[in-house]
Design a protein that fits this description.
Blueprint: E1 4-7, H1 8-19, E2 24-29, E3 34-38, E4 44-49, H2 52-55, H3 64-71, E5 75-81, E6 84-96, E7 102-114, H4 117-138, E8 148-149, H5 150-163, E9 169-176, H6 179-186, H7 188-208, E10 212-217, E11 220-226, H8 232-246, E12 255-262, H9 269-281, E13 291-293, H10 296-317, E14 321-330, E15 335-345, E16 351-352, H11 358-363, H12 367-385, E17 394-399, H13 403-406, H14 409-419, E18 427-432, H15 433-438, H16 440-452, E19 456-462, H17 468-474, E20 479-482, H18 493-508, E21 512-516, H19 521-529, E22 534-536, H20 546-556
Helix pairs in contact: 6-7, 7-8, 12-14
This protein binds ligand C2E and magnesium ion (2 copies).
């Protein structure tokens, strides 16, 4: 069920209307058990405990609002306190905070009336339930790891902020990399062992400085630590001793931490954890870094990423993604084809470059939709060029590593070239060396199938990664596309020697060699002297629209 979204301004006016109709109309955070107040500038403050009005002192983690928040559904309940009955309606809502974060809360609408005789019976029943509730409330510790549950972590963190209003804190989240693998490789028992050990080391850090430790679900943990006692070394030491204990020949243990230095304790604890997670995500795939600290830039990036993902469907539907072509040329500058490079042209005319959204779409599991769209643009273009003077031009398209998991690349590309009656030899598929190396066996099978069908496969960005030579041994491709990082300093002796060897090696392995990122005449001349004869780069042309490409083709060839 979709929960209604409100901006703070909308919520303020909703509350104003409701307060005329109910005895109490308020917004609560049922996890932290607090009433929320809103400033006119949209800032949220955590106010008094919300259970105070009817059963003071009885915290009820399974009150109707907690249930509403968990289930996303409207709940109703009657609470009895002294001589009154409180009829409570709990409506889950999502608040959109001014800085883009979302916050799950509950609008409580309460009517209060005097107790009637039947209500007294209900009161007895509720008293019986109370023991049961109290027992449930005790369940604030995660059964497996014995650290706090996520809900308890949120609530107790809030209590700390209230008790120590002048103290500075850091919120830390931790996540084990590829934890699924532990269960798959060694079984659930070993997986549990890893979680328990991780939790106990993290809890030790928290305990030593009067902080809190919680398990937020799965392999995700959180720590609340007084800022003056926080030491990055503690996290690094924990990561190291866990790695020492759990590393094996086939599994490398890694844990990443995100750190948010809390500068406003009035924001929800879930949002604080979200910020620590934003920092963590920036190093999630990074093997060299263990700890990342949240900063404003990350917040901006995370906001922008949200916009990319939320605007993607509409953009795809309304043709905002445009295929640009960067000419592929020979040593005389003659056009042989082009590389399809996507540009996101927004309705306001601004253009977003692929570097700003490709990775986000990859992480959101949506990149294959964009790639399929661009591949179709390319194949359609090739079919339009058929029977014209441009019939011999080729187009190279980029294939993301994630496409291998999401779609049957071979099936789809064959279907496209069949549908548009395009010669398979005119479509070239660029796959980066990192993508190919992730699953060398699987990639080799697909690459072989594609080549057998007549498509040309290019290894893109060769030399950018770390394992280029292994790749050449494993993957049989048609074209080696040398990354611009190898060309940048061509005037240096060592760079020149490496480049020359790579070109020779590619050719000896039977591949055509293309160099990208040619920006100067001198680079071009050096590369020609080294035996390279296919180029792409700003020296010849930047990526341009198809119309411009066609005009320049006429002038050029
Ligand atoms: P790439 O496939 O390696 O594409 C080459 C990039 O280098 C392009 O950046 C191009 O504009 C840039 N470039 C070309 N010549 C020069 C030069 O002389 N100097 C410099 N400094 N740069 C040059 P662009 O268009 O921003 O694309 C960046 C990357 O985004 C591409 O790298 C590719 O990995 C990815 N990409 C672009 N379009 C798509 C797409 O449709 N699907 C997927 N999956 N990835 C795409
Ligand atoms: Mg490319
Ligand atoms: Mg490239």
């Amino acid at each position: 069920m979709k929960v209604s979204e409100y901006t703070i301004e909308e919520m303020r006016s909703l509350l104003k209307n409701m307060s005329g109709m109910y005895d109490v109309a308020r917004v609560v955070d049922p996890i932290e058990c607090r009433i929320l107040e809103f400033d006119s500038d949209g800032k949220i403050t955590m106010n008094k405990s919300c259970y105070g009005i009817w059963n003071a002192g009885q915290k009820c983690m399974n009150c109707s609002s907690a249930l509403a928040c968990k289930t996303g559904c409207h709940q109703e309940k009657a609470e009895h306190f002294q001589d009154q009955v409180y009829h409570i309606q709990s409506n889950p809502v999502t608040l959109k905070l001014p800085d883009g974060d979302s916050y799950e809360a509950v609008v409580e609408l309460v009517n209060i009336k005097e107790k009637e005789p039947e209500d007294l019976k209900a009161n007895d029943r509720d008293a019986e339930n109370l023991d049961h509730k109290a027992a449930e409330y005790k369940a604030v510790h995660d059964t497996l790891t014995k650290v706090l549950t996520a809900e308890a972590f949120y609530e107790f963190s809030r209590e700390q902020f209230v008790k120590n209003p002048d103290m500075a804190w850091v919120m830390i989240t931790g996540n084990i990399m590829d934890f699924r693998l532990v269960n798959t490789l060694f079984g659930v028992m070993r997986g549990n062992e890893v979680l328990m050990k991780t939790a106990s080391l993290l809890e030790k850090i928290a305990e030593d400085c009067g902080g809190l430790c919680g398990r937020m679900g799965g392999d995700r943990f959180a720590l609340l630590i007084p800022k003056e006692l926080y030491k990055e070394e503690d996290l690094l030491d924990t990561a190291n001793s866990l790695a020492e204990e759990f590393n094996s020949g086939i599994y490398t243990f890694r844990i990443h931490f995100g750190v948010y230095e809390i500068n406003e304790s009035s924001i929800p604890v879930s949002v604080m954890c979200g910020r620590a997670n934003t920092a963590l995500r920036t190093i999630r795939e990074d093997l060299m870094r263990t700890v990342a600290v949240f900063d404003e830039k990350m917040q901006m990036k995370s906001l922008f990423d949200q916009e990319v993902v939320s605007g993607f469907d509409e953009a795809l539907k309304t043709g905002q993604f445009r295929m640009y072509l960067q000419p592929l040329v020979d040593e005389n500058g003659k056009y042989l084809g082009g590389e399809a490079l996507v540009r996101w042209q927004r309705p306001d005319g601004s253009i977003i470059m692929p570097g700003d959204f490709i990775e986000t779409l990859e992480n959101a599991g949506r990149i294959h939709e964009l790639d399929m769209y661009i591949w179709e643009c390319a194949v359609r273009q090739l079919s339009e060029w058929d029977n014209t003077d441009k019939k011999d031009l080729t187009i190279s398209v980029n294939v993301s590593a994630k496409d291998f998991y999401s779609i049957d690349i071979y099936e789809y590309i064959c279907e496209l070239t069949d549908r548009y009656h395009v010669d398979t030899g005119k479509l070239r598929l660029e796959i980066t060396e990192t993508a190919l190396l992730k699953e060398p066996e699987q990639s080799n099978t697909i690459v072989k199938k594609l080549r057998d069908r007549g498509f040309l496969v290019e290894i893109d960005d060769f030399g950018k990664g770390h394992s280029s030579l292994t790749l050449l041994k494993e993957i049989h491709a048609d074209i080696l596309k040398i990354d611009m990082s190898l060309v940048e300093q061509i005037e240096k002796d060592r760079d020149r020697i490496i480049l020359e060897s790579v070109i020779r090696m590619g050719k000896s392995l039977g591949m055509d060699v293309v160099t990208e990122g040619i920006e100067t005449k001198q680079q071009l001349e050096s590369l020609c002297a080294m035996g390279c004869s296919r180029f792409q780069g700003y020296y010849f042309s930047r990526p341009i629209t198809v119309e411009e490409f066609e005009t320049r083709y006429k002038e050029n060839n």
